[in-house]
From TrEMBL, chain A:
This is ABC transporter substrate-binding protein. It comes from the Bacteria. InterPro entries: MeTrfase_CN4_CS (IPR017985), NrtA/CpmA_ABC-bd_dom (IPR044527). The keyword Chloroplast does not apply. Pfam families: NMT1_2 (PF13379). It is found in: Endomembrane system. It comes from Sphingopyxis jiangsuensis. Keywords: Cell inner membrane, Cell membrane, Membrane, Methyltransferase, Restriction system, S-adenosyl-L-methionine, Transferase, Transport.
From TrEMBL, chain B:
Residues 2-116 form the Response regulatory domain. Transmembrane segments: none annotated. It comes from Sphingopyxis jiangsuensis. This is ANTAR domain-containing protein. It holds the Pfam family ANTAR. SUPFAM superfamilies: CheY-like (SSF52172). InterPro entries: ANTAR, CheY-like_superfamily, Sig_transdc_resp-reg_antiterm, Sig_transdc_resp-reg_receiver, WH-like_DNA-bd_sf. The lineage of its organism: Bacteria, Pseudomonadati, Pseudomonadota, Alphaproteobacteria, Sphingomonadales. Residues 122-183 form the ANTAR domain.
Amino acid sequence: MSRETFRIGFLPLVDAALPILAHELGFAAEAGVEVQPVRDMTWATVRDRLLYGHTDAAHLIAPLAIATALGRDRPPVELAVPFVLGLNGNAVTFSTTLAKEVGLGATLGDPAAIGAALRSIAVARKPARPLRFGVVHRYSSHNYMLRYWLAGVGIRPDEDVEIVVTSPPFAADALAAGEVDGICVGEPWNSIAVDRGVGHIALATAQIWRRGVEKVLAMRTAIADDRRDAVLALIRALHKAAAHFVDPEAAEECAAILARSEYLDAPKDAVLRAITDRIRIVPGGNPLHYPDFMFQYREAANFPWRSQAAWLYSQMTRWDGLSYSPRDAATATDVFRPDLYRAALAGSAAPLPGASSKLEGGLEGPTGAGSVQGRLMLGSDRFFDGRAFDPDDIESYLSELP
Amino acid sequence: MRIAIIDTSAGRAAVISDGLREAGLDDLVIIEPAGPLAAQIEAAAPEVVLINLENPSRDQLEDFFTVSRALAKPIAMFVDQSDAEATGAAIDAGVSAYVVDGLSKQRIKPVVDLAVRRFQAFSRLQRELDEAKGALADRTAIDRAKAILMKRRQIDEPAAYALLRGQAMRTNRRIAEIAEAIITSEELMGDQP
């Protein structure tokens, strides 16, 4: 029997793991589909290949999927996100010079305290040469997480500092060359900056938002409709790959596969540290265990909550300087497709949330959540400033933000 | 119409600019890949930007287009849905194009079409060059192996070549592979009697 093939675009990042492992470890074949990973170096190219049919699906930064559906900077194309490839897994890394000035310690510090120290430096630097931060894309969660934190500690992202775009594999170089004073990128690129002695990790993005949506599996809606059965099989394959990826026994093997030249082309040790939530903060230091640095499976992490898309839309509105539009909010929210996720995993052991949207940032600690299948517990999903996001009242939320 | 070319391959940039010049489009700026991207684009103020699809600076470039206030008009991507076929062909060829918003399609199309043809021609050339390089490396290896055989076995060149060829035929391998094996063994054991 011939299996349907999904060519899946990806960037060399640890959170491209699930499609790669589904292919390498047979989860795709077991589900009756074939996955062909297609490696690129920029999100622009991953997106273009997806839109023009060079690929069938892509490992994509979630805000870019939404921006594409909304037609920001280009004609809109309908996209569907039936599966979240992971939460968090990024970090904010300072140059060693800035780290010294801010007084970063050998452990992950408090976001508010680091922010306060950073603020006085940003203000002092502003007249001559403002501090400059690199993010991986304008429409990336990295950009929104960094901006959320900066604004929350009183640093205006577009006025007090500069935020520029740096491709992940070149972020450590930009830091080393002094082109930027800090970066917010995914792994293993923070760890590589630390190992090269040019960076000091200031924060994990999980400290900014404990359960922040990160990469997603995106495809054209036309593909999701026309090849629905195969798409559902692909979701089952990725879900199995996720369960395997978080198994501590499998970490070594997963890291070895991902480190290969055709995937991340990065040192295995740096990849392994990210997978096992062990982060080396300072050059030469011992890796520190920070639980849930990356979050790929538990608590139905792969479920595409419509409220996550709504939060990203709220940040897009905030930083693109546009006013809230109910129509755009609906378009953005509709990109996330919990219906496909449920259809794929109904009848399996996976817990399926009953709701498709939730209050984001409202949980202090493990809380039982309504489910239509299995038992679902959700852990703390706090933002560092304690705010919560109600997807049904984006306007009030926006008006209360700094 | 000023056209900027950004390419990680200097050779391909030259092939494209030659083609554009031949077509009478000679207001060209080739962006230095090692230099600062934004500053160069800003200084050039192009109406059309051609960039290779796999260029690692594409995200940076798109961001610059979005935030830049220096350019007179915002630059939009060449993604007219009515012409998906042409855009698809460009992506297949590995070229991405950005144009100033409002530039008429009749003026842009020949530029992009030409860039696509040049990109394809360049890939073909690259392939041929790789093959030629491979052939040259094979020749060098075979010559060295022949010299080793001639010296060690005290035979003439035709006999040395016949030995290589015979071994290749018997083992179903390429003559160059046999030659490589002889060179390796000579390097490791050449000092043994």
